[in-house]
Design brief:
This protein is α/β, with parallel strands linked by helices. It is built from 7 helices and 8 strands. The strands form 2 sheets. The protein has a 4-stranded mixed beta sheet, with no helix packed on it. Strands 3-8-7-5 form a 4-stranded mixed beta sheet, with no helix packed on it. A hairpin with a 7-residue loop joins strand 7 and strand 8. Helix 2 runs antiparallel to helix 3, helix 4 packs antiparallel against helix 5 and helix 5 packs antiparallel against helix 7. 30% of the residues are buried. The structure holds cobalt (II) ion.
Length: 271
């Protein structure tokens, strides 16, 4: 009678895992990357937009959990990853038009790398789901990395790394230009304002009545300067854009940013 020790059990587990088909590993790795990327984007937001940050972390849990469904290499597992892959493709597709035009946007690397990786995950999930009944081992491109499936995966990974390197160079240039702009503005929206302790600098500006105030968006994201009581609204201020408002009545005027309501500032108008 054989007695299985704990270490033999671990070896057995490792044998079972390494016997998983290549496509299951691609789906697993892709979804893990996606979840970690969303999570990494959400962490700095904790200091400002706690609600948004927690919501994004819960969103990140979806691909992280689904990745293990893909690793089962079973019919239900690939059904789950097809669904999750398609849902995130829609979300990233909707974000892509505004985010991909600006490499300095903090979401750029998430969307730029996420889209091709999601396409890879969705394609491998879909084809695996179709062939799982007859056995993935019979399709070399699903079973082994030494196949056309492996080459496609390598090409996607190479494309993502190359694009991120170029995007990083562009982001450095854009950030430097933004840092040098807006020197004559009264209030500056700082870099990474959505997670900055003081997004508007100065946080409180004091002026004499009948004077105007100019805000400059020095961040790589769109923000607004919006009165809490409806007196003025810049609407969307793209990176590098300015907005001016003349205060004709003394008083204390508080304002915020519409997409990031935790970004707050004050103008004190003295008689
Ligand atoms: Co904002």
């Amino acid at each position: 009678m054989a007695i299985q020790t704990a270490s033999e059990g671990r070896v057995g587990w490792w044998m079972r895992m390494s016997a998983r088909p290549f496509s299951a590993w691609v789906v697993f790795g892709g979804l893990i990357y996606l979840g970690l990327a969303i999570f990494a984007y959400a962490i700095p937001l904790l200091s400002g937009g706690e609600g948004l940050s927690v919501a994004l972390m819960m969103l990140a849990a979806v691909p992280l959990l689904a990745s293990f469904a893909g690793l089962t290499a079973k019919r239900w597992g690939f059904a789950v990853t097809v669904g999750v892959g398609a849902a995130f493709l829609v979300i990233f597709g909707l974000l892509s038009t505004s985010v991909l035009s600006n490499p300095a946007n903090p979401l750029f690397w998430v969307v730029f790398s996420g889209l091709p990786i999601l396409l890879l995950v969705a394609a491998f999930s879909f084809v695996s789901l179709r062939h799982v009944k007859t056995g993935l081992a019979r399709k070399r491109y699903l079973a082994s990395p030494r196949s056309s499936g492996g080459l496609v995966t390598l090409a996607v990974v190479g494309f993502v790394i190359g694009g991120l390197l170029v995007g990083n160079i562009a982001a450095t240039t854009i950030t430097r230009l933004l840092d040098q702009g807006g020197q004559v503005a009264d209030v500056r929206i700082v870099r990474d304002a959505a997670s900055a302790p003081e997004p508007f600098v100065p946080a409180t500006l004091t002026i004499a009545v009948s004077n105007s105030v100019t805000w400059f968006n020095g961040d790589a994201m769109v923000h607004t300067v919006t009165s809490d009581t409806g007196g003025f609204d810049s609407l969307d201020l793209v990176p590098g854009a300015s907005f001016s408002h003349t205060f004709t009545q003394p008083g204390t005027y508080t304002y915020h940013c519409t997409p990031h309501p935790w970004m707050r500032g004050t103008v004190v108008v003295q008689p």
